[in-house]
Amino acid sequence: MIEVVDCPLPASFQDAGRPGYRHLGVPLSGALDPQWLAIANALAGNPPQTVALEMRLLGPKLRTSTPVTVALAGDFSARIEDTAGQSRPTANWCSHVLTAGETLCVGSLRSGIGYLAVGGGFDLPPVLGSRSTYARAGLGGIDGHMLRAGDRLKVGAGGAAISLRLPHAPDIGRGPIRVIPGPQRDYFTDAAWQQFIGAEFVVSREADRMGLRLDGPRLEHARGADIVSDGVTPGAIQVPGDGRPIVLLADCQTVGGYPKIATVIGADLPRLGHALPGHKLRFVAVSADEALAARRDAARRLAECIAGMVPGGAELDLDALYGANLIDGVIDAD
């Protein structure tokens, strides 16, 4: 068991989400950055889509009652305290073996979001095929709520007492966010489209797992700001009547009545999961073929990243590592 000693800011359990239920009004949810989720699980000796803890800004303090392997994917300030009160720093992009009674203290996150995986995964009941927390509807995780002090987490079977690390931190990506024109592009003036792909936007304080509202030039509608509500997905960029774009993320609603000027391509959507208030963004238009090529390239780079893991300590169970089937399901981008 793992006891949550403290959790100063919201953290949630996330896996690949619950696809296939949008017709019932159930959002996808799942990790904001599926690639970093896969890396955290690979470091812990798990399959890539095993449920892990997604954290933002500041992490929790966790005490284990049994030996457990934990892996940190992200830029953390963290340390491990032993039963005598002595502490040692923990490296990022690495797995660590905690003995019974030790406490992992996760401090500030400099990477926007980060993931904590445990060997064997967190033993949580699936809800509609996923263990992802969707707190607005009380689905998944621990009784549908965000992590809080006093929670007790059972670790699943499997995994191994291993220590692995990445030689280099993965690159989140730089440059403009790539988009393809949205289904209601014709609801906006040509001048608004040129502003959208040419101007700089800033992530406002209205930013969470549901979406990011952007500050910047107001985008002018050519045919009004309302449409008959239709389906929306993560990555869609809605523009309501005030002209301020809203980029939808993993916990977004399933339908919406605002026109969508563009859609963020899948390869770049994880970058927006790391965006915090004050973060500056630019957009650039690409073709559907370019979007598919970017997705395949992202999958290739992820596979190479995982394949490049090296031993991080003395303990390494190669049979368990190879048996975890780390890359299967990650590189199929079509």
- Count of discrete domains: 2
Q: Please, what is the average pLDDT?
A: 91
- N-to-C order of helices and strands: EEHEEEEEEEEEEHEEEEEEEHEEHEH
Q: Tell me the major beta sheet.
A: 10 strands, antiparallel
Report the β-strand fraction as a percent range: 25-35%
Through-space gap between termini: 39 Å
What general form does the structure show? Answer: elongated
Structural class: alpha+beta
Low-confidence stretches: 314-334
Radius of gyration, in Å, reads: 20 Å
Which bin fits the share of residues in helices? 10-25%
The tally of beta strands, per DSSP, is 22
User: Helical segment tally?
Assistant: 5
Commentary on this structure:
The chain has 334 residues and is of the alpha+beta class. It has two domains: 181 residues, no CATH class; 114 residues, Beta Barrel (Cyclophilin), CATH 2.40.100.10. Helix content is 15%, strand content 30%. The protein contains five helices and 22 strands. Strands 1, 2, 3, 4, 5, 6, 7, 8, 9 and 10 form a ten-stranded antiparallel β-sheet that branches.
Summarize the structure.
The protein has helices at 34-44, 190-198, 269-273, 288-307, 318-323, and strands at residues 2-6, 11-14, 52-58, 61-64, 68-73, 76-81, 87-89, 94-98, 103-118, 152-153, 164-165, 177-181, 201-207, 211-215, 230-231, 236-238, 246-248, 255-256, 260-264, 280-281, 283-285, 310-311. The strands form four sheets. Strands 1, 2, 3, 4, 5, 6, 7, 8, 9 and 10 form a ten-stranded antiparallel β-sheet that branches. Strands 20-13-14-17-16-19-12-21 form an eight-stranded mixed β-sheet. Strands 11-22 form a two-stranded antiparallel sheet.
